[in-house]
Amino acid sequence: MNTHWEHEDTGDDAEESMVRPYTITRGRTAPERDDLTLITVLSTLDEPLDERGAPLRPGRLQPEHRLILARCRRPVAVAEVAAGLDLPVSVTKILVGDLVSQGLLGARAPISVAWAAGGADRRLLAAVRDGLRRL
Prior knowledge:
Blueprint: H1 11-24, E1 41-44, H2 63-71, E2 76-77, H3 78-85, H4 89-101, E3 105-108, H5 110-116, H6 122-134
Antiparallel strand pairs: 1-2, 1-3
């Protein structure tokens, strides 16, 4: 039996890391959307409109929601947002789903960006693949 367990320093971060994600997602543990992946491209919508075309007034946003909107002013992947905010990807997906459902954030598969630009450059993709193999 370890009699020194009460003297182990778990640090304040250990408690916070368990409680904070649960708190900012309001107890949700999975995103409502199943189409958000690590490489889903996110971008803040310039002027979100409701179904009648009137400017959308978002509800109360948490600080993390505001940070996501600020980071997505230029297109960015879900993984980059999670890393930049130092949040687990699962928590980030829940928060991103909130913003998409409110019409404040756009989410799209990255391949649509490549096709919109005239298709993917196969030479560039092959060079990236070869570079990754050399690692």
